[in-house]
Amino acid sequence: MKAIILAAGRGKRMKKHTSTKPKCLIEYNGKPLIKWQIEAIKKIGINEIGIVTGYSREMLSRFGLFEFHNSNWEKTNMVYSLNCSKEWLMNDSCIVSYSDIFYKSSAISLLEKSKAEIAITYDPNWQYLWKQRFENPLDDAETFRLKPDNTLAEIGNKPLTIEEIEGQYMGLLKFTPKSWHYVTKIISKLNDFELHTLEMTEMLQKIIDSTNIEISAISYKEKWFELDHPSDLGQVDLTNN
After folding, report:
1. Residue 238 pLDDT class (50, 70, 90 cuts)
2. Is pLDDT above 50 for 134?
3. Which of 58, 67, 26, 37 is nearest to 171 (CA)?
4. Taking a C-beta distance cutoff of 8 angstroms, is the pair 106, 73 a contact?
5. Mean pLDDT of the chain
């Protein structure tokens, strides 16, 4: 098992907070977010960690991770960045983490123990966090529906009601080489614009719609958060962990 942290983007929505550094270098409780991620991953015994860099790549070299570089980071989204690390994904099971989130090592452990070809963690109590972040939680939420066996049925569409959201996707996934083979088939059929703009949740929905791979959705109820807007800093306790 290996791990890949996606840290290519600038995070423009954070404005001045990312004008001179990547978003993952914003500090939480005295340490940059990426340091918390590395520690959570290593705590369960995963020591081979790669990072997909882009914006200000030189600032991330001090963490000693294996680098995959997305030279086209200004014009591309998550799936394009992830594909930059295909050398690992084709040959090993990999945990994939967004770089702008905080979570406990137990979230990584849940994914590592899953026998599914693709697994994601999700927050079933998402409304508690979203009500702190947004006046109307539906403004920045996506559909998230589960099948009776807790595999994913729908993700990433615009919801009209709260009932369409059974949880919040966190930005943590696991792929096996078998499942990445199917991802490769999907993205090989896309034109350049489609590949450059493809979001991770869109890709997950394509997997649901066009393959026989089931995506295991694993409930995670411990502390986590994401930094996506400057207002998020006011909702995150930066002194206590």
Report:
1. very low
2. yes
3. 37
4. no
5. 91
Which DSSP helix (H) or strand (E) runs through 203?
helix 200-210
Phi, psi (rounded to 5 degrees) for 56: 50, 50
- Tokens for 111, please give them: 């994914």
What is the distance between the alpha carbons of residues 116 and 42, in angstroms, rounded to a whole number? 21
Distance of alpha carbon 205 from alpha carbon 156, whole angstroms: 7
Phi-psi region of 64 (alpha: psi -120 to 50; beta: other; left: phi over 0): left
Q: Are 108 and 46 in contact (CB under 8 A)?
A: yes
Q: Cα separations (Å) of 93 from 8, 118, 143, 207?
A: 21, 10, 27, 17
- Alpha-carbon distances, residue 88 vs 82, 127, 173, 177 (angstroms): 10, 35, 15, 9
pLDDT of 211-231, one tens digit each? 999 999 999 999 998 877 666
Quick: pLDDT tens for 5-32. Answer: 999 988 666 667 777 889 999 888 889 9
What does the pLDDT read at residue 147? Answer: 97
DSSP H or E segment with residue 110: helix 105-113
Confidence of residue 239 (pLDDT cuts 50, 70, 90): very low
Q: What is the 8-class DSSP label of residue 197?
A: H
Q: Which of 28, 22, 101, 19 is nearest to 58 (CA)?
A: 22
Between CA 131 and CA 138, with CA 135 as vertex, the angle to 5 degrees is 75
| Average pLDDT value for residue range 143-148 | 96
